[in-house]
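Help needed: design a sequence for this.
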Protein backbone atom coordinates (compact mmCIF):
# COMPACT_ATOMS: atom_id res chain seq x y z
CA UNK A 1 0.00 0.00 0.00
CA UNK A 2 1.42 3.35 -1.08
CA UNK A 3 1.92 6.18 1.41
CA UNK A 4 -0.75 8.31 -0.25
CA UNK A 5 -3.25 5.51 0.25
CA UNK A 6 -2.22 5.04 3.89
CA UNK A 7 -2.85 8.73 4.52
CA UNK A 8 -6.13 8.67 2.61
CA UNK A 9 -7.45 5.73 4.61
CA UNK A 10 -6.47 7.36 7.89
CA UNK A 11 -8.29 10.54 6.96
CA UNK A 12 -11.40 8.76 5.71
CA UNK A 13 -11.58 6.51 8.75
CA UNK A 14 -11.62 9.43 11.15
CA UNK A 15 -13.76 11.61 8.93
CA UNK A 16 -16.38 8.86 8.96
CA UNK A 17 -16.15 8.97 12.75
CA UNK A 18 -17.05 12.66 12.76
CA UNK A 19 -13.60 14.28 12.88
CA UNK A 20 -12.92 17.60 11.18
CA UNK A 21 -10.13 17.15 8.64
CA UNK A 22 -7.45 19.75 9.37
CA UNK A 23 -4.53 20.33 6.98
CA UNK A 24 -0.92 20.07 8.16
CA UNK A 25 0.46 23.20 9.74
CA UNK A 26 3.86 24.59 8.75
CA UNK A 27 6.93 23.02 10.35
CA UNK A 28 7.61 26.44 11.81
CA UNK A 29 5.22 27.65 14.44
CA UNK A 30 5.60 30.51 16.83
CA UNK A 31 6.56 28.43 19.86
CA UNK A 32 9.60 29.41 21.90
CA UNK A 33 10.13 25.82 23.09
CA UNK A 34 10.26 24.25 19.67
CA UNK A 35 12.59 24.57 16.72
CA UNK A 36 10.25 22.56 14.52
CA UNK A 37 6.83 21.03 14.91
CA UNK A 38 7.63 17.56 16.17
CA UNK A 39 4.20 16.03 16.71
CA UNK A 40 0.68 16.21 15.35
CA UNK A 41 -0.72 17.82 18.49
CA UNK A 42 1.54 20.88 18.43
CA UNK A 43 -0.77 23.07 16.31
CA UNK A 44 -3.64 22.11 18.64
CA UNK A 45 -1.82 22.99 21.85
CA UNK A 46 -3.94 26.11 22.62
CA UNK A 47 -7.08 23.93 22.67
CA UNK A 48 -5.58 21.36 24.98
CA UNK A 49 -4.24 24.07 27.25
CA UNK A 50 -7.60 25.82 27.32
CA UNK A 51 -6.10 28.99 25.84
CA UNK A 52 -8.57 29.00 22.96
CA UNK A 53 -11.90 27.27 22.38
CA UNK A 54 -11.52 24.34 19.99
CA UNK A 55 -13.35 25.03 16.70
CA UNK A 56 -14.42 21.35 16.61
CA UNK A 57 -14.92 18.70 19.30
CA UNK A 58 -12.77 16.23 17.35
CA UNK A 59 -10.27 16.60 14.54
CA UNK A 60 -7.81 14.62 12.43
CA UNK A 61 -4.63 15.71 10.65
CA UNK A 62 -1.52 14.40 8.97
CA UNK A 63 1.18 16.71 10.24
CA UNK A 64 4.67 17.34 8.86
CA UNK A 65 7.14 16.70 11.66
CA UNK A 66 10.85 17.20 12.15
CA UNK A 67 12.72 15.59 15.03
CA UNK A 68 16.30 16.70 14.98
CA UNK A 69 17.17 14.87 18.20
CA UNK A 70 16.72 11.67 16.15
CA UNK A 71 19.43 12.72 13.67
CA UNK A 72 22.06 10.33 14.98
CA UNK A 73 19.70 7.38 14.61
CA UNK A 74 19.05 8.10 10.96
CA UNK A 75 20.21 5.36 8.64
CA UNK A 76 21.33 3.20 11.54
CA UNK A 77 17.99 2.16 13.03
CA UNK A 78 15.22 1.05 10.69
CA UNK A 79 12.66 3.48 12.02
CA UNK A 80 13.90 7.02 12.57
CA UNK A 81 13.51 9.86 10.11
CA UNK A 82 14.36 13.47 10.79
CA UNK A 83 11.29 14.34 8.70
CA UNK A 84 8.19 12.19 8.96
CA UNK A 85 4.43 12.51 8.82
CA UNK A 86 2.36 11.95 11.91
CA UNK A 87 -1.26 11.04 11.36
CA UNK A 88 -3.39 11.82 14.36
CA UNK A 89 -6.86 12.01 15.80
CA UNK A 90 -7.74 14.44 18.53
CA UNK A 91 -10.60 14.78 20.97
CA UNK A 92 -10.96 18.08 22.78
CA UNK A 93 -12.92 17.04 25.81
CA UNK A 94 -15.11 14.87 23.58
CA UNK A 95 -14.56 11.09 23.36
CA UNK A 96 -12.00 9.37 25.55
CA UNK A 97 -10.05 6.16 26.12
CA UNK A 98 -12.47 3.55 24.91
CA UNK A 99 -13.23 5.24 21.60
CA UNK A 100 -9.59 6.12 21.02
CA UNK A 101 -8.62 2.47 21.43
CA UNK A 102 -11.50 1.23 19.31
CA UNK A 103 -10.88 3.69 16.46
CA UNK A 104 -7.18 2.85 16.27
CA UNK A 105 -7.79 -0.87 16.51
CA UNK A 106 -10.38 -0.82 13.73
CA UNK A 107 -8.14 1.06 11.34
CA UNK A 108 -5.11 -1.17 11.81
CA UNK A 109 -6.91 -4.50 11.81
CA UNK A 110 -9.85 -3.99 9.43
CA UNK A 111 -9.18 -5.89 6.21
CA UNK A 112 -7.66 -3.90 3.36
CA UNK A 113 -10.72 -4.42 1.17
CA UNK A 114 -12.79 -2.76 3.89
CA UNK A 115 -10.72 0.40 4.17
CA UNK A 116 -8.32 -0.75 6.91
CA UNK A 117 -4.60 -1.56 6.95
CA UNK A 118 -5.23 -5.26 7.45
CA UNK A 119 -2.57 -5.95 10.09
CA UNK A 120 -2.70 -9.42 11.60
CA UNK A 121 -4.20 -8.88 15.10
CA UNK A 122 -2.04 -11.72 16.43
CA UNK A 123 1.06 -9.63 15.79
CA UNK A 124 -0.09 -6.53 17.63
CA UNK A 125 1.33 -5.72 21.07
CA UNK A 126 0.60 -2.70 23.22
CA UNK A 127 2.21 -0.97 26.17
CA UNK A 128 0.30 0.94 28.83
CA UNK A 129 1.34 3.13 31.74
CA UNK A 130 2.17 1.21 34.93
CA UNK A 131 -1.06 1.73 36.83
CA UNK A 132 -3.43 2.27 33.92
CA UNK A 133 -5.62 -0.76 34.59
CA UNK A 134 -8.46 0.89 32.74
CA UNK A 135 -6.44 0.80 29.50
CA UNK A 136 -5.53 -2.85 30.08
CA UNK A 137 -9.19 -3.74 30.49
CA UNK A 138 -10.18 -1.79 27.42
CA UNK A 139 -7.53 -3.41 25.23
CA UNK A 140 -8.90 -6.77 26.27
CA UNK A 141 -12.54 -5.78 25.91
CA UNK A 142 -12.43 -3.64 22.75
CA UNK A 143 -9.64 -5.33 20.83
CA UNK A 144 -9.67 -8.78 22.34
CA UNK A 145 -5.94 -8.52 23.04
CA UNK A 146 -4.67 -11.21 25.40
CA UNK A 147 -2.90 -10.06 28.56
CA UNK A 148 0.40 -11.56 27.34
CA UNK A 149 0.59 -8.92 24.65
CA UNK A 150 -0.11 -5.97 26.93
CA UNK A 151 2.96 -4.66 28.75
CA UNK A 152 3.24 -2.09 31.51
CA UNK A 153 5.86 0.62 31.23
CA UNK A 154 7.05 3.44 33.44
CA UNK A 155 6.81 7.18 33.28
CA UNK A 156 9.72 7.79 30.90
CA UNK A 157 8.04 5.81 28.15
CA UNK A 158 4.34 5.83 28.84
CA UNK A 159 3.44 9.06 30.53
CA UNK A 160 3.02 12.19 28.51
CA UNK A 161 3.15 15.86 29.39
CA UNK A 162 4.00 19.07 27.59
CA UNK A 163 6.90 19.83 29.87
CA UNK A 164 4.93 22.54 31.68
CA UNK A 165 2.07 22.56 34.18
CA UNK A 166 -1.12 21.63 32.37
CA UNK A 167 -2.74 18.56 30.90
CA UNK A 168 -0.83 15.29 31.04
CA UNK A 169 -1.65 11.64 31.18
CA UNK A 170 -0.78 8.04 30.56
CA UNK A 171 -0.26 6.81 27.04
CA UNK A 172 -0.58 3.52 25.31
CA UNK A 173 1.62 2.55 22.38
CA UNK A 174 0.84 0.10 19.62
CA UNK A 175 3.57 -2.16 18.24
CA UNK A 176 3.79 -4.64 15.40
CA UNK A 177 5.85 -7.79 15.78
CA UNK A 178 8.07 -8.04 12.71
CA UNK A 179 9.08 -11.57 13.57
CA UNK A 180 12.10 -13.47 14.88
CA UNK A 181 14.39 -12.32 12.04
CA UNK A 182 14.25 -8.86 13.61
CA UNK A 183 15.21 -9.67 17.16
CA UNK A 184 14.51 -11.40 20.42
CA UNK A 185 11.11 -12.37 21.78
CA UNK A 186 9.59 -10.63 24.76
CA UNK A 187 7.51 -7.77 23.41
CA UNK A 188 8.34 -4.10 23.01
CA UNK A 189 9.90 -3.78 26.43
CA UNK A 190 12.49 -6.31 25.29
CA UNK A 191 13.22 -5.20 21.74
CA UNK A 192 12.01 -2.16 19.82
CA UNK A 193 13.57 -3.23 16.54
CA UNK A 194 11.58 -6.40 16.34
CA UNK A 195 8.48 -4.83 17.86
CA UNK A 196 8.02 -1.69 15.81
CA UNK A 197 6.16 1.18 17.45
CA UNK A 198 3.56 2.49 15.04
CA UNK A 199 1.07 4.48 17.07
CA UNK A 200 0.95 6.37 20.34
CA UNK A 201 -2.38 7.07 22.07
CA UNK A 202 -2.20 9.77 24.72
CA UNK A 203 -4.98 9.91 27.30
CA UNK A 204 -4.97 13.43 28.69
CA UNK A 205 -6.72 12.88 31.99
CA UNK A 206 -4.55 14.53 34.64
CA UNK A 207 -3.19 17.90 35.55
CA UNK A 208 0.52 18.20 36.29
CA UNK A 209 2.34 20.64 38.52
CA UNK A 210 5.67 22.38 38.06
CA UNK A 211 8.79 20.26 37.81
CA UNK A 212 11.44 19.26 35.38
CA UNK A 213 12.13 16.59 32.84
CA UNK A 214 9.90 13.72 31.88
CA UNK A 215 9.43 12.25 35.32
CA UNK A 216 10.12 14.82 37.98
CA UNK A 217 6.76 16.53 38.58
CA UNK A 218 3.63 15.97 40.66
CA UNK A 219 0.42 14.66 39.13
CA UNK A 220 -2.20 16.87 40.71
CA UNK A 221 -5.46 15.18 39.88
CA UNK A 222 -8.05 14.62 37.19
CA UNK A 223 -8.89 17.07 34.44
CA UNK A 224 -12.54 18.09 34.25
CA UNK A 225 -12.55 17.50 30.49
CA UNK A 226 -10.49 14.57 29.30
CA UNK A 227 -8.91 14.72 25.88
CA UNK A 228 -7.23 12.47 23.33
CA UNK A 229 -4.08 13.05 21.31
CA UNK A 230 -2.74 10.29 19.10
CA UNK A 231 0.10 10.01 16.62
CA UNK A 232 0.67 7.30 14.06
CA UNK A 233 3.93 7.19 12.12
CA UNK A 234 2.97 7.13 8.45
CA UNK A 235 6.42 6.02 7.28
CA UNK A 236 6.46 3.18 9.81
CA UNK A 237 3.09 1.88 8.68
CA UNK A 238 4.35 2.22 5.10
CA UNK A 239 7.45 0.14 5.79
CA UNK A 240 5.26 -2.65 7.15
CA UNK A 241 2.61 -2.50 4.44
CA UNK A 242 5.23 -2.27 1.70
CA UNK A 243 7.19 -5.11 3.23
CA UNK A 244 10.52 -3.28 3.07
CA UNK A 245 13.28 -3.31 5.66
CA UNK A 246 13.20 0.28 6.89
CA UNK A 247 11.54 3.70 6.57
CA UNK A 248 14.12 4.90 4.03
CA UNK A 249 13.02 2.26 1.55
CA UNK A 250 9.36 3.29 1.52
CA UNK A 251 7.84 4.65 -1.68
CA UNK A 252 8.30 8.37 -0.99
CA UNK A 253 11.84 8.16 0.39
CA UNK A 254 13.44 5.47 -1.74
CA UNK A 255 13.50 7.55 -4.99
CA UNK A 256 16.25 9.71 -3.47
CA UNK A 257 18.31 6.57 -2.84
CA UNK A 258 17.82 5.71 -6.48
CA UNK A 259 19.00 9.15 -7.56
CA UNK A 260 22.06 8.77 -5.34
CA UNK A 261 22.77 5.39 -6.92
CA UNK A 262 22.52 6.95 -10.34
CA UNK A 263 24.83 9.85 -9.49
CA UNK A 264 27.39 7.72 -7.69
CA UNK A 265 27.35 4.60 -9.84
CA UNK A 266 27.24 2.59 -6.59
CA UNK A 267 24.51 0.19 -5.57
CA UNK A 268 22.35 0.41 -2.46
CA UNK A 269 22.57 -2.90 -0.61
CA UNK A 270 26.17 -3.65 -1.56
CA UNK A 271 27.76 -2.74 1.77
CA UNK A 272 26.55 -1.40 5.09
CA UNK A 273 28.84 1.65 5.24
CA UNK A 274 27.57 2.96 1.91
CA UNK A 275 24.01 2.00 2.79
CA UNK A 276 24.01 4.25 5.85
CA UNK A 277 25.15 7.10 3.59
CA UNK A 278 22.41 6.38 1.08
CA UNK A 279 19.83 6.39 3.86
CA UNK A 280 21.19 9.58 5.44
CA UNK A 281 20.98 11.30 2.05
CA UNK A 282 17.42 10.12 1.45
CA UNK A 283 16.26 11.16 4.89
CA UNK A 284 18.03 14.51 5.06
CA UNK A 285 17.05 15.46 1.51
CA UNK A 286 13.45 15.21 2.57
CA UNK A 287 13.82 17.13 5.81
CA UNK A 288 16.11 19.70 4.19
CA UNK A 289 13.73 20.42 1.33
CA UNK A 290 10.63 20.50 3.54
CA UNK A 291 12.33 22.86 6.00
CA UNK A 292 13.47 25.23 3.25
CA UNK A 293 9.97 24.91 1.80
CA UNK A 294 8.60 26.33 5.05
CA UNK A 295 10.81 29.38 4.76
CA UNK A 296 14.00 28.61 6.70
CA UNK A 297 17.38 29.42 5.18
CA UNK A 298 20.69 27.90 6.28
CA UNK A 299 22.53 30.01 8.79
CA UNK A 300 24.18 30.00 12.13
CA UNK A 301 21.20 30.55 14.38
CA UNK A 302 19.12 27.72 15.79
CA UNK A 303 16.87 26.60 12.93
CA UNK A 304 19.20 27.70 10.19
CA UNK A 305 22.00 25.86 11.92
CA UNK A 306 20.05 22.61 12.05
CA UNK A 307 19.15 23.02 8.39
CA UNK A 308 22.76 23.73 7.51
CA UNK A 309 23.85 20.63 9.33
CA UNK A 310 21.33 18.49 7.45
CA UNK A 311 22.32 19.91 4.08
CA UNK A 312 26.05 19.66 4.68
CA UNK A 313 25.63 16.09 5.79
CA UNK A 314 23.93 15.26 2.49
CA UNK A 315 26.75 16.82 0.51
CA UNK A 316 29.40 15.05 2.48
CA UNK A 317 27.65 11.69 2.35
CA UNK A 318 27.37 12.04 -1.42
CA UNK A 319 31.09 12.84 -1.61
CA UNK A 320 31.85 9.74 0.40
CA UNK A 321 29.85 7.80 -2.18
CA UNK A 322 32.16 9.25 -4.81
CA UNK A 323 29.94 11.99 -6.22
CA UNK A 324 31.85 15.19 -6.94
CA UNK A 325 29.19 17.22 -8.78
CA UNK A 326 26.61 19.39 -6.94
CA UNK A 327 23.80 17.24 -5.55
CA UNK A 328 21.33 19.24 -3.49
CA UNK A 329 19.14 20.47 -6.32
CA UNK A 330 19.19 17.06 -7.97
CA UNK A 331 17.92 15.43 -4.80
CA UNK A 332 15.46 18.26 -4.18
CA UNK A 333 13.83 17.60 -7.54
CA UNK A 334 13.21 14.02 -6.53
CA UNK A 335 11.77 15.08 -3.17
CA UNK A 336 9.52 17.60 -4.92
CA UNK A 337 8.20 14.93 -7.27
CA UNK A 338 7.52 12.50 -4.43
CA UNK A 339 6.11 14.91 -1.86
CA UNK A 340 4.66 17.62 -4.15
CA UNK A 341 1.24 15.97 -4.51
CA UNK A 342 0.79 16.24 -0.72
CA UNK A 343 2.65 19.52 -0.17
CA UNK A 344 2.04 21.79 -3.20
CA UNK A 345 4.24 24.52 -1.68
CA UNK A 346 7.21 22.38 -2.76
CA UNK A 347 6.10 22.69 -6.37
CA UNK A 348 5.05 26.34 -6.38
CA UNK A 349 8.09 27.40 -4.34
CA UNK A 350 10.63 25.20 -6.04
CA UNK A 351 12.66 27.96 -7.71
CA UNK A 352 13.31 29.60 -4.39
CA UNK A 353 14.08 26.26 -2.72
CA UNK A 354 16.57 25.42 -5.47
CA UNK A 355 18.23 28.82 -5.13
CA UNK A 356 18.69 28.44 -1.40
CA UNK A 357 20.13 24.96 -1.81
CA UNK A 358 22.50 25.93 -4.57
CA UNK A 359 23.88 28.86 -2.61
CA UNK A 360 24.50 26.66 0.43
CA UNK A 361 26.19 23.97 -1.62
CA UNK A 362 28.46 26.49 -3.36
CA UNK A 363 29.53 27.92 -0.03
CA UNK A 364 30.18 24.57 1.55
CA UNK A 365 32.04 23.01 -1.37
CA UNK A 366 34.52 25.87 -1.36
CA UNK A 367 35.53 25.13 2.18
CA UNK A 368 35.12 21.37 2.26
CA UNK A 369 37.96 20.56 -0.05
CA UNK A 370 40.64 22.49 1.77
CA UNK A 371 39.29 21.64 5.20
CA UNK A 372 39.24 17.92 4.47
CA UNK A 373 42.91 18.03 3.51
CA UNK A 374 43.79 19.71 6.80
CA UNK A 375 41.70 17.18 8.67
CA UNK A 376 43.29 14.18 6.93
CA UNK A 377 46.80 15.43 7.64
CA UNK A 378 45.98 16.09 11.26
CA UNK A 379 44.26 12.70 11.68
CA UNK A 380 47.22 10.88 10.12
CA UNK A 381 49.60 12.69 12.44
CA UNK A 382 47.55 11.86 15.53
CA UNK A 383 47.53 8.20 14.54
CA UNK A 384 51.25 8.17 13.70
CA UNK A 385 51.91 9.41 17.22
CA UNK A 386 49.84 6.53 18.58
CA UNK A 387 47.15 8.83 19.99
CA UNK A 388 43.39 8.65 19.53
CA UNK A 389 42.22 12.21 20.12
CA UNK A 390 42.24 15.05 17.67
CA UNK A 391 43.48 18.14 19.55
CA UNK A 392 41.02 20.92 20.28
CA UNK A 393 43.10 23.47 18.39
CA UNK A 394 42.74 21.44 15.18
CA UNK A 395 38.97 21.33 15.54
CA UNK A 396 39.11 25.05 16.24
CA UNK A 397 41.25 25.73 13.17
CA UNK A 398 38.88 23.72 10.99
CA UNK A 399 36.03 25.76 12.32
CA UNK A 400 37.77 29.12 12.29
CA UNK A 401 39.43 28.92 8.90
CA UNK A 402 37.34 26.39 6.99
CA UNK A 403 33.88 26.86 8.45
CA UNK A 404 33.61 23.26 9.61
CA UNK A 405 30.79 22.95 12.12
CA UNK A 406 32.04 21.00 15.13
CA UNK A 407 29.52 18.25 14.32
CA UNK A 408 31.25 17.68 11.01
CA UNK A 409 34.65 17.39 12.65
CA UNK A 410 33.20 15.02 15.23
CA UNK A 411 31.67 12.88 12.53
CA UNK A 412 34.82 12.77 10.42
CA UNK A 413 36.88 11.95 13.49
CA UNK A 414 34.51 9.11 14.44
CA UNK A 415 34.82 7.72 10.93
CA UNK A 416 38.60 7.84 11.28
CA UNK A 417 38.36 6.04 14.64
CA UNK A 418 39.32 9.15 16.62
CA UNK A 419 37.70 11.25 19.28
CA UNK A 420 37.98 15.03 19.54
CA UNK A 421 39.11 17.14 22.46
CA UNK A 422 35.81 18.99 22.61
CA UNK A 423 36.61 20.76 25.85
CA UNK A 424 39.75 22.18 24.27
CA UNK A 425 37.73 23.25 21.26
CA UNK A 426 35.08 24.99 23.36
CA UNK A 427 37.72 26.75 25.42
CA UNK A 428 39.30 28.21 22.29
CA UNK A 429 35.88 29.23 21.03
CA UNK A 430 35.18 31.01 24.29
CA UNK A 431 38.53 32.80 24.18
CA UNK A 432 37.87 33.82 20.63
CA UNK A 433 34.50 35.21 21.60
CA UNK A 434 35.93 37.12 24.52
CA UNK A 435 38.59 38.65 22.28
CA UNK A 436 36.01 39.58 19.68
CA UNK A 437 33.88 41.24 22.32
CA UNK A 438 36.81 43.22 23.61
CA UNK A 439 37.66 44.24 20.05
CA UNK A 440 34.14 45.21 19.24
CA UNK A 441 34.12 47.39 22.33
CA UNK A 442 37.31 49.09 21.17
CA UNK A 443 38.25 50.23 17.70
CA UNK A 444 37.56 47.94 14.76
CA UNK A 445 41.14 47.23 13.77
CA UNK A 446 43.46 44.33 13.48
CA UNK A 447 41.27 41.74 11.78
CA UNK A 448 41.81 41.13 8.14
CA UNK A 449 38.78 39.00 7.60
CA UNK A 450 35.75 40.33 9.40
CA UNK A 451 33.34 38.02 7.61
CA UNK A 452 34.87 34.82 8.86
CA UNK A 453 35.14 36.39 12.25
CA UNK A 454 31.53 37.44 12.35
CA UNK A 455 30.33 34.03 11.24
CA UNK A 456 32.39 32.46 13.94
CA UNK A 457 30.98 34.80 16.51
CA UNK A 458 27.42 34.10 15.51
CA UNK A 459 27.97 30.39 15.45
CA UNK A 460 29.76 30.43 18.75
CA UNK A 461 27.07 32.50 20.35
CA UNK A 462 24.13 30.51 19.10
CA UNK A 463 25.48 27.00 18.97
CA UNK A 464 24.81 26.41 22.62
CA UNK A 465 21.32 27.90 22.47
CA UNK A 466 20.72 25.55 19.58
CA UNK A 467 21.66 22.57 21.68
CA UNK A 468 19.59 23.71 24.64
CA UNK A 469 16.60 24.13 22.41
CA UNK A 470 17.21 20.74 20.89
CA UNK A 471 17.36 19.27 24.34
CA UNK A 472 14.11 20.86 25.40
CA UNK A 473 12.59 19.69 22.16
CA UNK A 474 13.66 16.19 23.03
CA UNK A 475 11.93 16.29 26.38
CA UNK A 476 8.62 17.33 24.92
CA UNK A 477 7.69 13.84 23.83
P1 LIG B 1 10.48 5.84 19.13
O1 LIG B 1 10.34 5.27 20.50
O2 LIG B 1 10.47 4.79 18.06
O3 LIG B 1 11.61 6.81 18.98
P2 LIG B 1 8.57 7.77 19.94
O4 LIG B 1 7.98 7.05 21.11
O5 LIG B 1 9.62 8.78 20.19
O6 LIG B 1 9.13 6.69 18.86
P3 LIG B 1 6.10 9.26 19.64
O7 LIG B 1 6.61 10.51 20.23
O8 LIG B 1 5.24 8.40 20.44
O9 LIG B 1 7.38 8.42 19.08
O10 LIG B 1 5.42 9.63 18.24
C1 LIG B 1 4.25 9.01 17.73
C2 LIG B 1 4.56 8.13 16.52
O11 LIG B 1 5.31 8.81 15.54
C3 LIG B 1 5.42 6.92 16.88
O12 LIG B 1 4.61 5.87 17.36
C4 LIG B 1 6.04 6.58 15.52
O13 LIG B 1 5.16 5.78 14.75
C5 LIG B 1 6.19 7.93 14.86
N1 LIG B 1 7.58 8.45 14.98
C6 LIG B 1 8.17 8.98 16.08
N2 LIG B 1 9.42 9.37 15.83
C7 LIG B 1 9.65 9.08 14.53
C8 LIG B 1 10.77 9.26 13.66
N3 LIG B 1 11.89 9.83 14.08
N4 LIG B 1 10.65 8.83 12.37
C9 LIG B 1 9.51 8.27 11.93
N5 LIG B 1 8.42 8.08 12.69
C10 LIG B 1 8.47 8.49 13.97
MG1 LIG C 1 11.64 8.73 19.81
MG1 LIG D 1 8.66 5.14 21.84
MG1 LIG E 1 5.93 6.73 21.43
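Sure. Designed sequence:
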Amino acid sequence: MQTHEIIKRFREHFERAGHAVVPSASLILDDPNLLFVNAGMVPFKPYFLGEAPPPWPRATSVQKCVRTPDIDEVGKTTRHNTFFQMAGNFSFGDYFKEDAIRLAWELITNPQDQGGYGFDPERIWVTVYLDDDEAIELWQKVAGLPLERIQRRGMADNFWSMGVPGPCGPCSEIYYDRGPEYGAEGGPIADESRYLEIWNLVFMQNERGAGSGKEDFPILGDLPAKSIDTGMGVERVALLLQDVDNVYETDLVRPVIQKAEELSGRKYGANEVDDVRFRVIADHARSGVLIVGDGVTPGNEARGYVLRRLLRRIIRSARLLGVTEPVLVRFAEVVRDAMGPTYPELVSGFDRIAQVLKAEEDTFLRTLESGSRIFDTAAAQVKAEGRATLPGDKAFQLHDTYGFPIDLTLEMAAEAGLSVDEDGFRKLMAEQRARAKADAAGKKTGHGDQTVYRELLELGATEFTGYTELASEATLR
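The radius of gyration is 24 Å.
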